[in-house]
Amino acid sequence: MNPENNHEEMPRDTEKKRHFDSCSDAFRSGRDDATAKAREAAPELKAAIADVIFDVAYGTAYGAFFASAFANEFVPQTVKDGVSKGAAAGRRAADKVRRGSAQKNASHGDRAENVFKELPGTV
Fold it and tell me: What is the mean pLDDT of the chain?
């Protein structure tokens, strides 16, 4: 038996496949295998992702509330009062600026209407 001619001794298929048929079979087989493996792995992956999301949410909530509770106990009352009074004063100042801006814009709008009425050819 000559190894170079070994392929000639193998039985040939009676029906020849075209190359794209064998490629499409390979893709189809790969798709089916991947789908089956994904269905097997999905429940474990879902559980792992759910555990990670829970741990992140728990850690975030714990960290935020621990820090705020600790700060609430640690910071003296005079500092808390000062921050509260400063925030209220800032709010009042911002409201005053907003009211002044609104009034200024309203009076500016009146002037714009008067100028428009004075233009020739306008009603």
Answer: 78
